[in-house]
Amino acid sequence: MEQMDLLTYCKKLPKVELHAHLNGSLSDGTVLQLLEAKEKELGSTDSLSSFKMTISKGPERCLRECFRVFEALHSLTDSQEAIRKITKNVIQEFAEDGVRYLELRTTPKNIPGKITKKEYVDAVLETMINEMKTCRIMVRLLVSVDRGRGVGDAWSTLSLAKQYLDHDVFKGLLVGIDVSGNPNKGNLIDYIPILKEAKKCGFKLAVHLAEVKSCVEETDAVLENGLVDRIGHGTYLLKNNGYGIKYQKKILKNFIPIEICMSSNLKTQSVRSFEKHHFGVWSGLKHPLAICTDDKGVYCTTLTNEYYICAKNFNLSEQDLHELCLYAVEAAFLPSSEKDILRQMVKEELSKLMGKLFVERRTTYMIQ
Ligand SMILES: [Zn+2]
Fold first, then answer.
1. How far is the CA of 284 from the centre of ligand 1 (A)?
2. Domain 6-25+84-351: CATH class, spelled out
3. Which residues of the chain have pLDDT under 50?
């Protein structure tokens, strides 16, 4: 039987990506295309040239440089044309990486005189439909509420999202709301009425939760109100003395899946090493987890790479990897009829891979 090394095997896995921010997922190639388009529009400037230099450093660039460039990206993606281009490229890259189902998330932007929030979302959804016709991938959208922008902005994003629930063309594509942004800004407690309203409308909720130490009150409030369908990161859930066990019980009891983004957590130093990542605790408890990239462009990673890192550091078997793919299917924000189709497809592909992971075995020599 044809055998594969671990990295090839991870690439072949039919994967499901549930935590991918559109703007943070841009490949270096896409960023360079955007910078060049901007240069054509404005002429060459010092800052554009310095961003090009930073991007061309590839994985060698430091995290501070990455954030600077990706912050600047917001000013490069200020037209429907740019939004279509980045959405197309990101979907194609995930499809090439063996991702069969992708939930993209993005904060709709309003730049006066350039683009409205509605035009932004329309451009993303139109491109998703087009790409699903040609790439072997299903794509759905979560709109992001940025906790740093205040509740007024969040209410306006939610009322926009509602317009797509019964939309003639886009119905069924916008499946949930993501809560993200700088965890040191704003307080999730202020967003609870918005999250309650979103749930009432039928949206699923993915919340970046417990990303910093000082999060006890808001984590309590979100969990107690049953306002999270998937937890993003949850890096400090178990590290809070006295609260860790309480949170763990609640999350286990309610089967709330956790989105695991290993490279992102290590690079932002919210975990000290891959081996010490909380993946180990939750997977030991057989809790549903979804391996994700977060921002594949910023952290120079792929979903294949994230599976590979998990497998290497936690000594995962072929069976464990298959289980992770299927956990991610169950955690997807799809209605059950569509989830059945996805599960069937993933299971068929996994069964063809069974037994093909090359496992090095130590030879033992018998002393005669
Ligand atoms: Zn995130």
1. 24
2. alpha beta
3. 364, 367-368
